[in-house]
Design goal:
By secondary structure, this protein is an alpha/beta fold. Helix content is 35%, strand content 24%. The two termini are 36 Å apart.
Length: 274
């Protein structure tokens, strides 16, 4: 069956997450195949040994953050749609931060996406060293004051940008990769009961999956880099109840992974490096 556009975008995003996750763990990927149950089948090499792994990927998301996630999905869709027209630099990527508690309605996402791309295109020659910060915020950080001056000078051209975007970090080395975060003050802690719920849910699913010749079965819980899914202090999740759920799950390894902070922690088994 042919994937629709949204399903294909979702799978491409998941694949990028898993590739970065495996790179973080210093595995060489010899083969990585998309699947559904589980999400991926990988042949990995580390320390001269080959390992066949089935990987199931899920998100750590709180209901309160789902609205922001839906808004970001809409904005990301239009960024990808309009990028060839407004900013044709192929390998442009960016990390966007919304202003605190100010999110655009979905109907404005097409206009905001165009303003973001027009703003970047206007000054794209300054993105020369891999990463450059563009700020729409205060002057507290002198390293990005120049970008604040640019934003202020063009405020009438970028009303939505000025209203909703706190900052942007652009990169010319990550093709087609847009991501976002909410207000910096809203990074949340991991709640053990929520992790236990995720582990138990995927333990039940694991039984029905087709793992084939996998040497190991992994569950990767991804943070997502946004308000509703950032894992800022996972040490609070170290409880006997969580370890018991992980042990009973049937997964050989369970990881917490935060892509945008390049941070990983192994929940199971104990003592395994993350």
């Amino acid at each position: 069956m042919t994937m629709n556009v949204n399903s294909r975008r979702k799978k491409e995003k998941e694949r990028r997450i898993i590739e970065r996750f495996l790179d973080h763990l210093d595995f060489k990927i010899e083969d990585l195949k998309d699947g559904e149950k589980p999400d991926f089948r990988a042949t990995l090499r580390s320390n001269g040994k080959s390992l066949n792994v089935g990987i199931e990927l899920t998100e750590y998301a709180r209901p309160a953050g789902r609205r922001m996630e839906a808004i970001w999905d809409e904005l990301e869709k239009h960024l990808e749609k309009y990028q060839p027209k407004y900013c044709p630099l192929r390998n442009l990527g960016g990390f966007i931060t919304f202003k605190q508690n100010i999110f655009p309605p979905k109907r404005l996402c097409p206009f905001l996406a165009r303003e973001i791309l027009e703003f970047v295109a206007e000054h794209v020659d300054r993105i020369t060293d891999g990463r450059t910060s563009l700020s729409m915020g205060s002057r507290d950080n002198p390293l990005i004051a120049t970008w604040e001056d640019i934003a202020a000078a063009n405020s009438s051209r970028y009303p939505n940008l000025k209203k909703y975007i706190g900052s942007m970090k652009m990169c010319n080395t990550l093709p087609g990769c847009w991501s976002c975060s909410g207000a910096k003050t809203e990074w949340i802690d991991v709640l053990p009961e929520e992790l236990i719920g995720i582990i138990n849910r995927y333990a039940n699913k694991r039984i029905r999956y087709h793992w084939g010749l996998a040497d190991e079965m992994w569950l990767v819980i991804h943070g997502g880099g946004s308000v509703h899914s950032a894992m800022s202090r996972p040490e609070k999740a170290d409880t006997a109840e969580l370890r018991s759920a992980a042990e009973k799950s049937g997964y050989d390894c369970i990881y917490l992974y935060e892509e945008f902070k390049d941070w990983c922690r192994c929940l199971w088994p104990p003592g395994l490096a993350g």
